[in-house]
Design brief:
With 374 residues, the protein is of the alpha/beta class. It has 13 helices and 18 strands.
Length: 374
Amino acid sequence: MKKIIVLGAGLVGKAMAMDLAKNFEVTSADFNEVALREAAAPNIKTQKIDFTQLDRLAEAIQPFDLVIGAVPGFLGFQTAKTVIESGKNMVDISFFPEDPFQLDELAKKKNVTIVTDCGVAPGMGNIILGYHNQKMKIHSYECLVGGLPKVREWPYEYKAVFSPIDVIEEYIRPARYVQNSSVVIKEALSDPELIRFDGIGTLESWNSDGLRTLIKTMPNIPNLIEKTLRYPGCIEYLRVLRETGFFSYEEIDVKGMKIKPIDLTAKLLFPKWKLKPGEEEFTVMRIRIEGLENGNKKNYEYNLLDQTETKTNTLSMARTTGYTCTAAAHLVLDGKFNRKGICPPEYLGEQHANFEFIINYLAERGVIYRVSEN
């Protein structure tokens, strides 16, 4: 039986380990002992690893056939580099801020497959776009996505279901999108727009930096945009915090002590953003692709509305993100996707059989993308 190590035992890492353990020998690794205890199961081994100790990390992953990366974004790039240097294949959802193609030459030299950004968005959105980009001349791609608590609770009406520090990055990292074949850069939280979704009601979208590799890998598409969704009114709070400096990494002097405002903000916000035991959430995504197919105008719309699986208490964001990653893991381990180097998810979608496998894999787990076309 092939062996997989999942680096990170958080909400998504735990869900991925449980899913993969149905078919593989799985070890869940983390430095957080509480997370490891919660991830432990009769068919899942655990291992305490400090991911900042790169020699220890390189040693720990040696016995495994595949590495799954589910560490916080600020650790992601160096973790991926260590995996590559160790000659191991990897599927990663750490969404690190650095350009993954910086590691492409090294990955090809080591003859390894590194699938990056393999979550829901980025991730499944890229896979869908990669699939359609092989079939048609695309004029525009729009992805709207968000994960939210079912119950709106004042003041933020939001809960963090993945690394909270990565959530704050969404609010401060400049957003890039493509308009008329030119890259446009705007501040995060800009261009808010109210949009209604069936089964949810009205949500507010705003510019976020979710396109990532698509800007480089899809130069033929003149219009590309990804926007994040929140309950209406939420972003005004976030703008106030950001403009006041609460998200700043620059140290300030407070009564003779040097502190980073972001550290204080994180300490105060994270308890308010933490899901309570039994609290449910949902993931909503809408993708629109427009262009020409066989010489005719063609529009595709993909809609996802996934909710916490109450039977197993598996969060929707863990399901939609994690199961996309575990589907890709199957493809890599089965040799059905063996492209070498840095492979963003759009490369997975280019092969019809792989696209169908991922769609069906998700559907079997109740994550269903409803497709309409005209």
